[in-house]
Amino acid sequence: MGSHEKSFPRGGIANLVANTDSSTSNIVFGATQRKIKKAPKLKEKHLEEEKGDQLQAFSAETLTYDTLQENMLVMGVVKATEATSLQIALPGRMTARALVADISDAYGRVAQSYMAGDSSEYRDLTVLFSIGQIVYGRAIKTRNNSEGNRMSLLLTLKPSEVNSSLHHVNIKKGFIFVGAIEEIQEHGCVIETGIGGLQAFVPIEGAAQKHHIGQLIFLKVKQIQHGSDKSTCQCVCVEQDKLKIKSQHETNLDYILPGSIVKFKATKHLKNGLEGSIMNDAFRGYVNEHHLADALQSPQDYELNEEYLARLLYVMPLTKLVYVTFNLNITVQPEQPESEGEELLKKGSIVEKARVLRHGTGGIVLLLKHKYKGLISYGSIKSNFKGNYDQDVVLAKYSSKSKHNVRVLGYDVIESLYYCTDDPNVLNEKTYTLEDIQAGDIVSARIVKPDPKIGGYSVKIGKVNGIIEQLQLAPNTRYEVGQRLRCRVLEISLDRKICYLSNRNEYLSKGIKLLTSLQLAQPGHVFTGTVVKCDATYVLVKFCSGIKGILHKQRLNELVESTFFEGQTTKFRVAGRNNDQVLLTLPEDKFQLGEIIPIEVTNNALDAGLEFKITFASDDQNAATTGDEDNTEEFMGLVPLRFLSDYVDLQEAKKRIHPVGNHIEAACIMQNIFSLRDVPYFSENLTKDWHTVQVGDVLRAIVKHAGEKVLELLLPVRNYNKLVKLHVKMLCLQTVRDKPIMLEPDQLLYVKVLSKEPETKTLTVSAKLTDVWSGQLSDTAKLVESYLKEVSQIRKSLKQMDAPIAKYTRGEKINVIFRGIDSATSNWVYNVEGTKSISAMMISSLAGNAEAPQEGSTQEAVILWIDYANDLLLISNKRKDIEHISSSKELPQNLIAKSGMKAKVLLKLDNIVVCSLKKGSSNPLILCPIRLHPNDVESTASACLRQGDFCHLAFIHDNLPIALPEAVWKLWKGVKRAAVEAEETTVKPKKIKIENNAANKSSPQNVTNGKETEEEVKPLVNGKKNNGQLFFEDKKPAKTNTYNSKATGGAETKVRLPGISNFWDTDASNNKTQEESSSDEDDDNAAGVAEPSSSKKRRLSAKEKAKAEVKEEERLREIEERNADPNQPPETIDQFERLVLAEPNDSKNWIQYMSFMLSNTEIDKAREIARRAIKTIAFRETKELRNMWMALLNLELSYNSSNFDDVQKEALSHTDPLETYIKLVEVLKSHNQKERLISVLNNLMRKFKSELQVWRVAAEAYFWLDMPERVQPTLQRAINALPKNEHINCIVAFAKVYAKNNDNDMAQTLLDDIVTSYPKRIDIWVLYADMLIKAGLIESARNLMERAVLQKLQPDKMLVIYKKFLDLEEKHGTEENAARVKKLAEQYVQSQNKSLK
Fold this sequence. Notes:
Pfam families: HAT_Syf1_CNRKL1_C
Structural class: alpha+beta
Shape: globular
Region (Disordered): 993-1132
Number of strands: 55
Radius of gyration: 46 Å
Number of helices: 35
Main location: nucleus
GO molecular function: RNA binding
CATH superfamily of the domain at 772-980: Nucleic acid-binding proteins
Subcellular location: Nucleus, Nucleolus
CATH architecture of the domain at 772-980: Beta Barrel
CATH class of the domain at 772-980: Mainly Beta
Strand order of the largest sheet: 4-5-6-8-7
Largest sheet: 5 strands, mixed, barrel
Helix content: 25-40%
C-alpha cells in the first residue's frame, strides 16, 4: 500500500534555517521531513515569514512506486520505441509505457483515420520519437493480473492532460512547454497546447518535410496576445538541451514543467544528496546522489552556495519539493570503451571483482571495471534470505572496498548506472540473455504455460523467454507445464526479446543442415525448412533466423504443385537469391515412382493423412568422413488421406489402424508423397516409363484437378512429368448437362492409352467405362470382394489393438439403449448395452413412421453395418429384420446364380448397398456395389436403388452374398469385351464395301458414306489422322453401319450432317450456299434454307413466273416493314448504324451496339464504338456521356483491366467526378474488384467529404466488402466533415444502411438517439417505426409509438403519430389494442379542447 503525502501544517512559512535538534522526523515519500520552530527575528525583517511552520526534508530520497502519486507530472526519457508503444525511463529506475492513445488528441484522430483506411497522414511512433528524447507526462498506476498483480506504470503525454492545470492568462513570454502539431500549413504548424484558452502557431518553413501531425515538440513562447476568453501566441521550437529558463523570478511552480533547465544553488550536504533552492531561493530543491553530473561523483564533490545548472525531474504535488538532476546530457547508451579490447557492459555480463564504494540510496554502490558505476539493490540482497535474519550481519559482507562477482541486470538511463546482482543462482545461469544462444543451438526448455494465441507453449531456457508455435510442436506428444523438452533454436527476435524453438524430430535429427544466415544461402545447397503458407502460385518456407524462402510453383512440374501443406517440414534446395529473398526448388528425388519402401509412421493426427519417416544410409561424403557410426539419414514424407484406401469410407479407419511407430510399406508417387492403396498395383505390375508404355495399355491414374469439362490426370509413368488432360466426354457414356460429374482430387480412375506422340511427348487417353472394363460382372464381384477384404483387415487390426468396436460382426444380434432422435437427421440414436464407447444408430428411413421408444429403454437389434472410423453400429430394430438376417458371410447354395430375388434396400452407403431378402427364414445380408467399376462415375450399378424400396436382385458371386439389381444384370449379362483388345475388332473387307457402293450407285451420297466408313476404321498413327480428328470418341465401328441392306430395297440412305471426323469427306453440295447480294438479301437468306441444286435447270412457265414475282414482292415488302418498325430490334451492323444516326444522343442505342459487337467477340470494335459515341453525344447530355464512360469502364474491366486506370482518369476529367465516382462504385461491385473499390472509396471520401451521399455510398460498400467494422468510423468521419444541418440526415442514412444489412441493433441505436434528442422530427418517428415493422420487431415498434404519443407536440404532428400507431395495431395487433389507440387519440383531442377553452 502506497504512502500518502502529508498536508501542509497550518500557519505561516518558517525560516529556511532550522533548529534540527528539536525536530521530530517524519518520512514522507522517501524524504525525511521535520517541523522547524521559528527563530526569533527582528520585526522589521521578514515579517511575512512569521506565519507558521514548513515541512523540510533532510534526506534526498529518489522516487519509488510508493512515493509516486497518481497523475503526478514526471520527466522521462524514451529508451525504446515500437510502432504502437514507447518504453520510457523514469527517475528511481522505474519504467513506464506510453500507448498510441496517450500521445496527443491530434495523433489519436490520425490513428482513427488510419484504422478507417486513410494512411496519408499517419506515422508510427518509431518515426515520431527518437531514442533518448526527453518527455514529460502524468503517471498512471495499473496492476497486471496476468503477471501476478504486478504494478506497472502508464505515462500519458497528451497536452490536454499534461497541461490541463495551466491557464492562458498566466502564460508569459519565454514560457517553455510541450505541444502537439495539430495541423501543418504552408508556412508553419498549428499547435495543440492543451492549455485552456491558448492558441499557438509555430512558423516553420517546409514544415511538412520536418514534422508530422500529432508529433510532440518543445516550444518557447516568443509573442503572446492576451484576451479575456482566449490568448494567441507565436512560438519557436526548442531543442531539449536548450530548455533553460532565463527568468529566475517565476513565482508559480506549476508553470515550471519537468525537463526545464534551471539554476540550482547548493545550500547543504545531505547523507544521500544535496539540498538547495531554485528560482532565486523561491523554491527548495533536492539532488539525489545518483543524479549528479558524473555517475562516480559524490555530494561532497560539490561546493555549497555555488550555482549549478540542473534539469527538473518532478515536483511533489502537495509539499512542492523540487527534485532535479545535474546530468543534463542524458544518453540511453553508456559510454563506449576507450580501448578496443575492452568489452562494453551489457545485460547479462559478469563483472569480476566489483569494488564496493559505499552504502548509498537504494543499495550498495559498486565500481565496475574501474570506470562504471553499479548498484546492488537492498531488495535483491534481502530476496536471498528467507525468514528472520540480522540486517547488520547481511550488510557487513559489503564493507567498503570489498570485492564481489556480480551480473549486470540492466542500465538505468537517468541515473547512469548499472543495476546488478550477486545472487549465485543468477551468476551460475548459463543462458541469461538472448545473446547467450544462437540460431541452430540445441537447448533444454521448460514449459511455462500454454499460449492459446499461437496454439503452442511459452517456455523458458534458463532466464530467456521462448515460444514453440503450433507448427513447430512435435506431434503425438503430451505436453504439461513444467515439462522439459529438447528443442532446436530456430530464430532469435531481439525486438520482442524472445526466441522461437521447435521440438520436431526433423530439426533434432543428426546431420541436419540449417539455414541460419543469408550468406549460407548459396545456390545448390540443401536446407531443412517448414512450410508456413501455401498459395495458388507459390509456397512460403521459413528457415532459421527468420529467413524466408519462396518456392514458385512454376518451377515445379504439374505433378507436385498440390503436394504441400502448412506445417510440413522437409528439405529444400536453394535456386538463387534476390537480395533478402531466397528462391527455392526441390532437391532431387530420393525414390522413383512406384518404388515400394518400408516406412515408420510418425504422426497420425493430421487431417491431411499419415506423416512418416524413412531411415536410410546417408550418401553425404562429409558425414562418412566424420567416423560417425550412426551414418544414417531420415526422409520425411506424407501419405495423403485419399491414398490410404481406394474406398472413401474406409480412409479414416485405415488411418486409425496405423499408430505412431507402426512399420508398413508404401509406394512412392512423387517427391515426398507416398501411397498405401497403390502398393498391390505396383507389386503386381511393372512400372511403365515413356519408352515402354504402348497404345492400348490400361493404366491406373489419379485425378489431380477436376473441372466441369476437363480433368487433369496423373499417370504412373516414369519420366513423364505431365498431367494428362481428359475431356469429360471421354469419361462418361452419356454426359448430362444438368447433372455434372462430381470427382475429387486423388480419386482413382483407369485410362486406356489411345495415342503416343514422340515429338511432343504427349499421351492421349480415354477413361470411358467401355474402354477400360471388360464388361464381365465377375470383375465387379471381385471389386466388392476386395472391399470386404479391406474391411476385414481393418477389423483384424483393431482387434489386435483391443478396440471394443472390433468384437462386433455384421448380422449379429445385440441389445441397445435408446437415447433420442437426432434433430438434424431424424435418425434414432442408441448406446450399445454393456459399453459406453460404442454408439448405434438406426437411419430415419428404417424407422419410418414408427413411434419412438422411451429414452433409456432397451431394445433388441441386428447390426447392418459397422463404421470402424467413428465406432458406430448401423442397426435395425425391426422384428422381421432380426428374424430374417443371419450373421453368416457366405452365400447359401440354393441362391448361387439366382436372379429375380426380391429384397429390401436397408442402407445405401458410399461404396455398397445393404439389402435383405424377403424369402427364407434366415439369410445373410446382401451387398450390392454402388459402381460396376472405378470408372463408373455415374454409379449405374445402384442408380435405381433407394433406401426403404423393394427391388429384385441377381447374384454374381459364387461364395459371397454379392448381387446386382436385376435390370443392371440383364443389361450386362453375357457381355464379353476385352478392353485391351478393342482395336482388334474385325472390319468388313473393302470388297464388301465396293459391292454395297455399286448396289447404291444411283445415290452419290452413298459413295460418300462408304468413304467415311473406310476412313473410320483406319488405325491411328501417333495420334494423327488425315481427316483432322480432334477427339477420340469411339475407336470401334458402329454395330449398325450406313450400308444399304437388302431389306431397304435400294432406297437412299439418310444424309448425315458433317461432323469433325468426316468434315473433309462430305460432298461439297451439302455445304453450298447462295452468294450474298445485299444486306437485305443476307437477312432473307439467313432465315431461309438453301434449296438443293439440281443437275438440269427447267424453264418456268408464265404462271410460275407471276407467282415468283408476287413472292419476291411480298418478301421485299416484309423487309421494308421490318426496317421501318421502330420496335423491331436491330440485328445487323447496318441497322445499328441507322439507329445511332437517327438518335445520336441516346446512350442506350450505342450500348446495344457495343453489346452486339461483344457478342461477336469484336472487342476492339466495341471499344471504338464507345469512343465514337463519346465524341458524338452532345456535351450538354452529361447523363448520356456518363453512361458511355461507365460502359467503356465495364468493357475494360471485363476484357483488359490493364487499361482501366487510364480510362478511369479520362472519365473523371470529362464528366462530373462525384457522379462518376458513385457510378464507378457500382461497376466495381459488379466485377468483384475489392482492392480497386477500397481505393476509390478512399479517394471519394477525401475529395468529396462535404457530400452526404458519398458517406452513404461508402457505408453500403463496406457492408458489401464484408467490412462492417469500418462503417462506424466512417459515420464519425462523416459527422466531423459534414455541416451541422446535415448531421441528422447523415445518421438517418447510416441507420437505413444498417437496417438494410440486417444490423437492426445499430440502426435502432442511431434512430433512438435522434428521436430522443429531436422529438419534433415526426418523419424520424415514422421512419423508425417502419423500420421496426419491416424487421418484424412489432413489440419494439409498439413501444416506440407509446413513447411518441407521450410527446407534447402540435396537433397536426400528433395526428400523424396517432394515425401511424392505429395503422400498426390494425395490421399487426389486436382489436383491443386498436381500440385502446383510438381511445388515447380521443383523450388527446379532449385535452386539446380543454386547453383552448
